[in-house]
TrEMBL record:
Cofactor: Zn(2+)
Occurrences of domain Peptidase M14 (ranges): 224-540
GO MF annotation, one: metallocarboxypeptidase activity
Keyword annotations from UniProtKB, A to Z: Carboxypeptidase, Disulfide bond, Hydrolase, Metal-binding, Metalloprotease, Protease, Signal, Zinc
Keyword Signal assigned: yes
Record's protein name: Peptidase_M14 domain-containing protein
Protein family (similarity comment): Belongs to the peptidase M14 family.
Taxonomic source organism: Panagrellus redivivus
Region (Disordered): 551-584
Superkingdom of this protein's organism: Eukaryota
Length: 584
């Protein structure tokens, strides 16, 4: 195989009908040459050159040549990768899945979710390489031996994936969802009987969910998903009726020209002496529950403010809330255009213009979109991210190459907010995780990790109290996988925000239906998440008031082993990590 070490000379921005849409969710050819930000290499020329010319943050003089893909990678090669190179199997195995075109016309329905379970390190690594090529849409990325890997496939890809598994010795391959689009229709359509039942109960007083399913005072139901325009209009009505306490703001425009709007809530709003808590959702288009939960958070806070509830007023004495329900409105609106088409509904990235890449056979493939949660300037492009424009985890041409992420950066570093933000909370789906920095590798923590961990433990405890929902907490590599370029790591390291968290909402890590949450779970999900975020609000407010932490987090060690834990005192939390590393 010939290898080249060329650098990106330009990017093609085309948007042909064949490439518009979600075609790149399905298979594409890969091993790009020219026109993409990948540096190719071979054993002789190595990678002792900058990864990309003219980009200061990438001026690396070291790195290694990943011979499985013949691309330069930053950092050091792992033992596992060296071992796989010795086996020389990865390229051959992955090449077997390159023939599917990115054209929507080639989709062979039904679209399914297939689960694989790697049983040794070599199998894990082969799946990691497959994941990073972006050929397939991994709903659950490979992490370790024994951990399940879920992949969305059409029928042609399924056959190829099964062949891949067979060649690679992965014996556990099963179909989790036999028809994803049918499942979407069942769970998300207006015909969903459980959601319907909740709406019918509205006003009967029999259920709090039912009450919240009706229109709120500002004309939005909490029982459903809503178009971006309706959410913005709703925030506008709140601000119009409560001008001293709520204000709509914009952090700038998206690729397609939409304003990214949010709502500031304070008592009064705009008091520059207050500390700030930033909450956002919807950076990933398909994660509708994250948008819904952020909207619900606003609803709940406004509701409490209207009633002048004492606990909220006390928090707002020292804190102002900055809430952005949809950071990626282009992507969100795209997923709503054909909500029963899995290839549209499951779009994850932004809607940035096509970037094109040429495969080894000279065929050009173009894909839209950047994974905005890999585009922040925190160890950009290092791990858990992809160079390939068609990948679901494509990190973009450079850190902050996208207007959406630049807008977040500029708003947070704006002189109005800088130094005042004490918490950054970003909502995602799914897996029921409360993630704190850093997610680049294991044992990578900020100096004040004990504080972040303590608040995370309390938050997941609060979440669990309502319905018993179990969340894990930890860094990315501790509880899911390592990745870089995420917003909360950037918020912590570069913006200096103390309590920085990524929250992955329902369903659980072990769920088979992933992003497709039954509509009847919307309000319960939002309610329990509100309780978790409230812990962050309360912590920031207490610290702003100069109060000393009154709550013991680590329960005293019993004098002797006991099978029955001492009952918790009111308000007390217990650190259970000694027996169950991540659940609380
Ligand atoms: Zn996400």
């Amino acid at each position: 195989m010939n290898s080249i070490c060329g650098f990106m000379s330009g990017v093609s921005n085309v948007d042909t009908p064949a490439h518009r849409g979600a075609g790149n969710v399905l298979g594409v050819t890969f091993l790009f040459a020219r026109k993409v930000d990948v540096v190719f290499c071979n054993k002789s020329n190595g990678c002792k050159r900058p990864f990309e010319e003219g980009k200061k943050n990438l001026q690396l003089t070291t790195g290694f040549c990943d011979h499985t893909k013949n691309v330069c990678r930053r950092g050091r090669q792992t033992t596992l990768e060296i071992m796989m190179l010795a086996r020389g199997v990865v390229v051959a195995l992955i090449v077997g899945i390159v023939s599917v075109s990115a054209n929507l016309d080639t989709v062979e329905r039904p679209i399914q979710i297939v689960q694989l379970v790697p049983t040794d390190d070599a199998q894990v690594l082969s799946l990691v390489h497959l994941y990073e090529t972006g050929i397939l849409d991994f709903w659950r990325a490979p992490t370790k031996v024994g951990a399940t890997v879920d992949v969305m496939v059409d029928q042609r890809q399924k056959a190829q994936l099964e062949a891949f598994a067979l060649e690679n010795g992965i014996s556990t391959v099963k179909t989790l969802v036999t028809d994803l689009e049918q499942m979407i229709t069942d769970q998300e359509s207006d015909a969903n009987w459980r959601a319907k039942a909740i709406k019918m109960l509205h006003g009967s007083g029999r259920s709090r969910d039912a009450l919240e399913a009706g229109m709120d005072d500002f004309g939005l139901s909490m029982a459903d998903y809503h178009p971006y325009g309706d959410i913005v209009a709703w925030m506008g009505r709140i601000a119009a009726r409560m001008p001293t306490q709520a204000r709509v703001f914009s952090i700038g425009r998206t690729v397609e020209g939409r304003e990214i709007n949010g709502l500031k809530i304070g008592n009064p709003v705009g008091d520059s002496s207050k500390r700030i808590i930033w909450i956002d959702g919807g950076i990933h288009a398909r994660e509708w529950t994250a948008v819904h939960t952020t909207v619900y958070f606003i609803y709940k806070i406004i509701n409490k403010l209207q009633r002048r509830e004492a606990d909220l007023l006390k928090v707002l004495d020292s804190v102002e809330l900055v809430v952005i329900p949809v950071l990626n409105p282009d992507g969100y609106e795209f997923t709503r255009t054909e909500p029963r088409n899995a290839l549209v509904r499951m779009w994850r990235k932004s809607r940035s213009n096509d970037r094109c890449a040429t495969d080894r056979n000279g065929k050009q493939t173009c894909c839209k979109g950047v994974d905005l949660n890999r585009n922040f300037d925190y160890r950009w492009a290092e791990t858990g991210t992809s160079f390939h424009p068609c990948s679901e985890i494509y990190h973009g041409a450079g850190a902050f190459s996208e207007p959406e992420t630049r807008n977040v950066r500029d708003a947070i570093l704006n002189s109005d907010l800088t130094g005042r933000i004490d918490a950054y909370v970003t909502l995602h789906a799914y897996s029921q995780l409360w993630i704190y920095p850093y997610s680049n590798k294991k044992q990578s923590y900020p100096a004040d990790i004990a504080d972040l961990k303590k608040v995370a433990a309390r938050a997941v405890n609060a979440i669990g109290k309502l319905f018993g929902t179990r969340y894990m907490h930890g860094t990315g590599p501790e509880i899911i996988y390592a990745y870089t370029g995420g917003s909360s790591d950037w918020a912590k390291e570069k913006a200096g925000i103390k309590y920085s968290y990524t929250i992955e909402l329902r369903p659980s890590y072990y769920s088979w239906n992933g992003f497709v949450l039954d509509k009847s779970q919307l309000i319960p999900t939002a309610r329990e998440t509100y309780d978790g975020i409230w812990v962050v609000l309360d912590t920031v407010a207490r610290e702003a008031r100069g109060e000393v932490d009154p709550v013991p987090v680590v329960a005293p060690t019993p004098a002797r082993p006991t099978t029955t834990p001492r009952p918790l005192a009111p308000g007390e939390c217990r650190d259970v990590e000694s027996t169950d590393p991540h659940f609380a």
